[in-house]
Amino acid sequence: MADPKGLKNRGYTHSDVDERRAAAEEFSGASLESISKYCFSSEAASKNIENMIGATQIPLGFAGPVTIEGDYASGRFLIPLATTEGALIASISRGMSVAEDGGGIRTKVFWDAMTRAPIFRVRDLAHSAEVMEWVTDNMEMIDEAVGKTTSHGKLIDIEMLPNGRSLYLRFVYATGDAMGMNMATIATEAASRLIEEKTGATMISVSGNMCSDKKAAAINIVRGRGKTVIAEALIPKEVVGKRLHATVDSIVEVNYRKNLMGSALSVTLGANAHAANMAAALYIATGQDPAQVVGASMSFTSCEDADGDLYVSVRMPVVEVGTVGGGTSLPCQKEALSMIGCSGSGKARKLSEIVAATVLAGELSNLAAQAAGQLGSAHSALGR
């Protein structure tokens, strides 16, 4: 079904959406009455979607309050979460409440960079070495080409990975408060054209899957992509018993046998109970790219007996979020960001710390429920 107003005219109006939806109803035989009801203007979404026919609404709730002590997120927060999974927000809220009894959650950002890795075809190994040498000797020229495409992004490094007649160049950028994927792509294309011109190498694709974007990849776990964030909390022994109905030893053992050994035996990239759950709900609520949940799924949850108390931490090497651009400017998502003080410039690292704290709370509650044998009953009681 052709729709010339979809791709060619991105600044469509409400009447365009109505016309397109009517055509979809006629073609499919389905009634789209609920899809036709939404609170934002069609123009507001014109940069986010093509062939718009309406909107899908997802229930939005909040977890918390939770105290976060980070380099960027500091204070008590109510966390907006969009989900259709019953028991999820209740579980996260329980984890946050327990963390409050232990003095809150501490967070820190250890790395912040976005990557894009084009693949070049070279003649042979000698040519590959020549291209690599040229890149090393001409970083200033490459940086100048990048600078012409963006006033916000900054080239940090180019990692070079040769493989026969293929050469992968993993460009690493600081991208400010944008998630930065589009910025990195545009800048890398410009730099790659320069490399082609100067070396005779041929760019086959601006993304050679060494980035690696929206895929579970060990290179991102080891080197990081987006923000690398760690959250931690210390839960007193008495709180574990009273609030979580478990023991420190039982939670530590569940984490060891499930998250660490189970993940190792299944060769899972990451070792956690359900980190993607919390990330997905927060990402959808705040206008992030939902596909980047795959990065959050590669998180590592640790639990230890710390002199009788429970120490829990979550390492998230791939937190790809932004507070400007993408879906963050849509009205509902912007309001959700404003709930946590993360709307607009200067807030991306703060948001990443809130993501890590939310994931930790969900991990803590889930592991405790499994240690206490309550996971199934909790889902049953809340309508799953």
Largest sheet: 10 strands, mixed
Count of alpha and pi helical runs:
14
CATH superfamily of the largest domain: 3-hydroxy-3-methylglutaryl-coenzyme A Reductase, Chain A, domain 2
CATH fold label of the largest domain? 3-hydroxy-3-methylglutaryl-coenzyme A Reductase, Chain A, domain 2
Uncertain spans, ≥5 residues at pLDDT below 50?
A: 1-9
Question: What is the CATH architecture term of the largest domain?
Answer: Alpha-Beta Complex
CATH top level class name of the largest domain: Alpha Beta
Instruction: Please state the oligomeric state of the protein chains shown.
Output: single chain
Percent range for β-strand residues:
15-25%
Calculate Rg over CA atoms. Answer: 23 Å
Bulk shape = globular
Number of strands: 10
Average pLDDT taken over every residue: 93
Structural class: alpha+beta
Percent range for helical residues?
Answer: 40-55%
Tell me the count of domains.
3
SSE run: HHEEHEEHHEEHEHEHHHHEEHHH
Rounded to the nearest angstrom, the distance between the terminal CA atoms is 38 Å
